[in-house]
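input
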Amino acid sequence: MTIKTKELAELTAQISAAALDTSKWKNVLKSLHIYSEGVKAQLSCRDIKTGKSTGAYAHGFDPHWVDLFHQHFHSINPWTPGYDLISEGAVTSSQSLCSHQQLINSEFYNDWLKPQEDILYGASLLLIKEGHRMITLSGNVRKIDGDTKEQEWMSLIGLIAPHMRQALEINKMLDSYSLEQYVARNIQEKQPTAIFILSYSGKLTYSNTYGSALLEEADVIKINSTSSLQLINQTADKHLAKTFYLSAKNGHAPPSSFPIAVNNYYDFDAHTLNIDSHRLTTSPYGSLLTSDQPTIILTLYKVLKADAKLSQLANIEKLTDAEKAVVLLFHKGDSLRDIAQKRSTSIHTVRCQFKSSMAKLKVSCQAQLIRLLNEI
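output
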């Protein structure tokens, strides 16, 4: 199995589409199943401690066996503990997660894998790891196909790993809505994120509300004299210019990420992603844009510097160190239970610290707290 350039281009285009519309992950997995010549593919979010899947897309599996996995076998999956030892972005063979001998002696193998054409080999790409939650792209290979197909699968998912991770970050940023739904619903994000859709020459086609506000302020980004988008920070603008250059020259540029230094209080994380609508059956933008020309998505994600945030919080009201830590972890997306685990304290203590912080900050609900922290 050797993936052709045209197939890889189609696959990356589908991944780009899935970045804006999560339902299109099904198309990605279907293509992976086809291009890998039968590897059963699964994109799943799971808990490392329990093995339980909190959401998954799959292709190549009988639905009956998928149901059985969620009902019972997720809790005895011998591959799951191995994920705790690997890092984000790593491609790992099934044998590195669990030896064949250990697997063959397990109930998981004898009652779930073996009845499915004797699955023995496989590999996974750890895409995102946050605490004890993770998102993985996995492939299961039959024993008869041996480790050759396992190695081919590892090569394939290694090629698309940067595209997958970038797309999932955009999924997360858009709160799992397509761009059209995102605009229509005017979602309140946990942290300000500006979204721009650009032509390969840098001409602006669309910006969301926060993006338009940044353009009006012109402290971070602006429209220059040639009507193209320009970042004020020269180093960051060179990164963006390189994306425009590669896109215009090659018809595609790899996803990129780079920081934008702004001031002593906050920076921006910038991400770019190519969308080539010519390679897609339907536009990922829905009815938002009618143009079928290739575009670049630029996102700017505001990141308050930790020291500045602590200082600002301390200045607003006299929060204790524990209260500041709880509020900061909450703002990063952790639940109160997660915070209790990270701080090695009881959930009751964390709830009390959280309520005390809200009272001192004069907010009555979590949404108000998020808005206040966003404005700092």
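quick obs: The first helix runs from residue 5 to 20.
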